[in-house]
Amino acid sequence: MKNKQVLLAARPTGAVEESHFRIVESEIPKAGEGEFVVRAHYLSLDPYMRGRMDEAKSYAANAELGAVMVGTVVGEVIESHHEKFKAGDFVETRTGWQEYGVSNGSGVRKLDTTLVPLSAYLGAVGMPGVTAWIGLNEHGKPKAGETVVVSAASGAVGSAVGQLAKLQGCRAVGIAGGRAKCDYVVNELGFDACIDYKAGNLDAALAASCPKGIDVYFDNVGGAILNSVLNHMNAFSRIALCGLISGYNDPDALTVRNFRSFLVNRIQLRGFICSDHMDLWRPAMKELGEMVHTGKLKYRESIAIGLDNAPAAFIGLLNGKNFGKQLVKLI
Amino acid sequence: MKNKQVLLAARPTGAVEESHFRIVESEIPKAGEGEFVVRAHYLSLDPYMRGRMDEAKSYAANAELGAVMVGTVVGEVIESHHEKFKAGDFVETRTGWQEYGVSNGSGVRKLDTTLVPLSAYLGAVGMPGVTAWIGLNEHGKPKAGETVVVSAASGAVGSAVGQLAKLQGCRAVGIAGGRAKCDYVVNELGFDACIDYKAGNLDAALAASCPKGIDVYFDNVGGAILNSVLNHMNAFSRIALCGLISGYNDPDALTVRNFRSFLVNRIQLRGFICSDHMDLWRPAMKELGEMVHTGKLKYRESIAIGLDNAPAAFIGLLNGKNFGKQLVKLI
């Protein structure tokens, strides 16, 4: 029995390739005093990880070259010398892209899997769901009857944004890549409309889908889509800026050309990350967990099998090839 | 006795030229029932007027081709059939670029000139001062010890922003064009530093003047200066977006290249105009008037003499040739 790990082998200068990662095997770690060992069941793959591969300053520390790639897993405690965690506990922990990891309990969350499936704690009831909840409620502040637009609408964050907006009485309009994702967003998730940005003529599509303009834009992508959305924002509208996936490989793609709209329409823009609001995680997870349990919040997962497939799955995620929350199943 | 007027003769496609205006004389108007006639003493010239000359949608209606240019004056009521305004009252009114205008009292403010000079109601105690007050207090929300940067720092709005920030215990750093303006901003207005953007190397100058980074940016100009400022914004910093004068003639100049900073630093940006907050005008004007009266708020005026010189003065304003609040003296 070995511990398979994915290391950051090189920092990408543009698109991420499998050669930027190196897969190795090491001994399964032992827990020291005050520590415990987690066997990961699922690794979460998220767009933010692209930023960790860079050297540029971001909101969190970079992944170190030659070290295990940073990331969050859900799994089971298999050995413990920690008073608050015991073998058999299910937990969420940031032990990274590896099958086994040691923790001292810092930042680890115990998970109740009686009502919510374990993997959902990496998606609808985890960081992506909480991100949707915080961005929409704290920064978007939609009112019933308003129009909420979200990009990457079939993804883990976007799908929750639109469903939460619908429950608040808003018109929810998604933007996603391809007919299949758009059909899912409307037919399965219950959005009012979803625009296929790959079909071209985004401006006309936004005008048609948002006849009263846009009051809240929850942005996961930036770039060309943001530039089009800015043409349709209403006076006193809000933009919750959650991600800029369109520019992770090419910062020039993020250029904003219609900045005048921010002044003319008195737009409020707020960049945010979910860890800025740790006080809101508990109420958000409680609400999201109940919604998942009662079927009010639906989600979809793309599951790659085994750590060997994690780099390819991550590259696919950056190129929009996933459909729903991207996970790697490790057990 | 005639009423000299400046009409909008043509809409500019790029830079404003004198040929876009036409100066005419008409009869001095008469007040009908419920109306009064104002003889303007000072006409205010403001950057926002550039937007009114365009056909493009903005936050207020355009000036009409062939009509008197829109604008605010302060002056004296010389004839009245209105129960609330009588001859001899000093008022602020939006009768535009002309010597005499008729009003029905809508939106007209009576002015007390016993403690504050009449012209100040177009500057430090008028729209520019109130704009500074609202943008800084409502959207910038500076805390003592924070660094506040303002562009167009020697202008009517910018000069008030920095002085208000200093009174709140902040470090105030201006950006202005040329050594004379910068000296004035530091030596007369009491800012901690002022950067001459025409001297080049704005990034290095910002780093030197803002050793703890920037917490609040009050932006009057957009464009290249905003792009540099974005490199120095702190986590959880705020941008009060008040004007985009660098792009009024060339929207491409407003392109934002470092949009990623909004996410990485979780910046809050808010576009605003002072008329969105009419409830705040009274407290703002009261505080600003007391500050002018007691010498805590200093200001400077650039005064053109006579309406014939208004177009040239306005063009100079758009090119940063004014030094302080630009007025046209009409009497």
Q: What can be said about this structure in brief?
A:
The first copy, chain A, is α/β, with parallel strands linked by helices.
Report on this structure.
2 copies of one chain form a homodimer. By secondary structure, chain A is α/β, with parallel strands linked by helices. Chain A folds into 2 domains: 3-120 and 300-329, Quinone Oxidoreductase, Chain A, domain 1, CATH 3.90.180; 127-275, 3-Layer(aba) Sandwich (Rossmann fold). Chain A contains 9 helices and 15 strands. Chain A has helices at residues 48-52, 127-140, 156-167, 179-188, 202-209, 223-229, 260-264, 281-293, 310-318, and strands at 3-8, 21-26, 36-44, 73-80, 90-93, 100-103, 109-110, 147-151, 171-176, 193-196, 214-219, 233-241, 268-271, 301-305, 325-329. In chain A, strands 3, 4, 5, 6, 7, 14 and 15 form a 7-stranded mixed β-sheet that branches. In chain A, helix 4 (179-188) links the parallel strand 9 and strand 10 (193-196). The longest helix of chain A is centred in the middle third of the chain and has 14 residues, at 127-140. The relative contact order of chain A is 0.16. Chain A binds chain B through residues 57-59, 222, 235-236, 241-244, 247, 251-252, 254-257, 259-260, 262-273, 276, and chain B through 57-59, 222, 235-236, 241-244, 247, 251-252, 254-257, 259-260, 262-273, 276.
